[in-house]
Amino acid sequence: PNRAPFRPRQSLGQNFLHDPNMVEKIVGTLEAEPGDPVVEIGAGTGALTGALADRFERFVAVEIDERAVAVLREDIPEADVRQQDVRDADWEELAASFGAKLHVISNTPYHLSTEILFALLENRRHIAEGVLTMQKEVVQRIAADPGTKEYGVLSVLTQLFAAPRYAFSVSRHVFRPQPDVTSAVLHVRFGPEHEPDDLDLDDVRPYVRAAFNQRRKMLRNSLRAWSKDQGIAFPNGWGRKRPEALSPADFADLAGHFNERADAVEDRLHE
Ligand code: SAM
């Protein structure tokens, strides 16, 4: 009975959840109120979808695989199921159609987990929260503290522009077919109170990327494209630090400082 009525495609990351207790636990992680709009990404054969459609009046399920869409429409006719590649989703339009910020939930296809997280971060003005089941190591990286080996680009950017939390781990045995890895649920809250006032993702991302691309190097070397080439001095002696020593807020300060100086250099060139 718990078997998919079609052959799961590994290329689509199809691992279907079959444990009712885990369904409850994951759906229960949403902080959404019954009237809030909820969007499920990758609904598959509906493990979470039935519970979500029961609980939330305003509910949309997105799924790319037409075979799964057919199953969903048959089994859960009350759900608004859209056959779509989530990478093409227009989050702004969807939120506008509800007149409210979206609550997003997904047992993510593993190959798209971080892409989905970044899509939510980019669209955070239209999204209230995310409940994302991902590979456990990825959730650990997102929630990691400075100074740990898991700390990196995902930690800095997610912690700077949202409030992520490692919720709980999910055994691979609750999925069919079983994936090779253990999963975990990420809870992430979005909102102006969880991000800097005067910086956007793209103001910070280049520095964080460059720094962690060479994580064993001191920042004055990994960020030489700005510091040496443009003659911008590091604040707080950070040039001699490695990236794991800087908190997300430190990276925001560094980016603010560098961007300001880089603008000044630009202005001088154009005088
Ligand atoms: N929610 C179901 C469950 O928990 O059993 C399925 C989870 S499965 C890990 C991931 C689902 O995402 C699959 O149903 C897959 O077809 C779907 N999917 C994969 N790529 C997608 C994409 N680009 N856009 C939308 N859905 C996608």
Summarize the entry for a quick read.
By secondary structure, the protein is an alpha/beta fold.
Sequence-ordered SSE layout with sheet pairings:
Blueprint: E1 16-17, H1 20-27, E2 38-41, H2 49-55, E3 59-63, H3 66-75, E4 80-83, H4 91-98, E5 102-107, H5 113-122, E6 127-135, H6 136-143, H7 153-161, E7 163-170, E8 175-176, E9 183-189, H8 201-213, H9 219-222, H10 227-230, H11 248-270
S-adenosylmethionine binds at residues 12-17, 42-44, 47-48, 62-65, 68, 85-87, 107, 109, 112.
Report on the structure:
- With 271 residues, this protein is an alpha/beta fold.
- Helices cover 38% and strands 17% of the residues.
- It is built from eleven helices and nine strands.
- The chain has helices at 20-27, 49-55, 66-75, 91-98, 113-122, 136-143, 153-161, 201-213, 219-222, 227-230, 248-270; strands at 16-17, 38-41, 59-63, 80-83, 102-107, 127-135, 163-170, 175-176, 183-189.
- A seven-stranded mixed sheet has the order 4-3-2-5-6-9-7, with helices on both faces.
- Strand 2, helix 2 (49-55) and strand 3 (59-63) form a beta-alpha-beta unit.
- Helix 6 (136-143) packs across helix 7 (153-161), helix 7 runs antiparallel to helix 8 (201-213) and helix 7 (153-161) packs across helix 11 (248-270).
- The chain is elongated, with a radius of gyration of 21 Å.
- The model has no long low-confidence stretch (mean pLDDT 95).
- The structure holds S-adenosylmethionine.
- Residues 12-17, 42-44, 47-48, 62-65, 68, 85-87, 107, 109, 112 line the site of S-adenosylmethionine.
